[in-house]
Amino acid sequence: MRNAQCPMRNAQRAGVTAAALLSVMASEEFRPKPFNLQARLLLFACDIVRAAQFLHRHGAIARSLSYQLLDAGTSVGSNAEEADGASSRRDFIAKMRIALKEAKETRFRLTVCRRCDLLDQSFDGLVKESDELVRIIGAIVHKAIRRQKGGEST
């Protein structure tokens, strides 16, 4: 992944602390959300990697959760990418349903980590983003199913 897409490496080279970078990145003014879902999911995956790195340094339980969060949080985007290249509407729906399940799992794990104070308030934006992505992907799946049942073309 390029440094521009995951700015943590550049910040580390410049001597910026992870907490300072995350607090700036969490602000809505710093990074507007892209309209393209794949781009938004890429940014989300990068944020999940940073959250996993943060958790990994905070004890055995947090470390264990970091692996689970990393698996689920990064697979949301990869499953959506697969759906984008689906061979049929049925295949698209199946792959987007998997992306939705992974997004819901990620949201749940982030909420658990936040409520147990394994993640600090600087990650509240990530928890909110996970909820928004669940809603967006859920709407996409729902609409695709409705179209499939109705026989509409795309």
Structure in a nutshell:
This protein is an all-alpha fold and 154 residues long. 75% of the residues lie in helices and 0% in strands.
Structure description:
- This protein has 154 residues and is mainly alpha-helical.
- 75% of the residues lie in helices and 0% in strands.
- The longest helix has 27 residues, at 89-115.
- It is built from 6 helices and no strands.
- It has one domain: de novo design (two linked rop proteins) (Up-down Bundle), CATH 1.20.1440.
- The protein starts with 7 loop residues before the first helix and ends with a helix.
Could you estimate the helical fraction of the residues in percent? over 70%
What is the alpha-carbon Rg in Å? 17 Å
User: Termini separation (Å)?
Assistant: 32 Å
Class by helix and strand content? mainly alpha
Counted beta strands: 0
Largest sheet: none
Shape: elongated
Topology, pairings included?
Layout (H helix, E strand, L loop, with lengths): L7 H7 L3 H9 L10 H20 L3 H25 L4 H27 L8 H27 L4
Q: Could you list some keywords that capture this structure?
A:
154 residues, mainly alpha, de novo design (two linked rop proteins), 0% strand, elongated
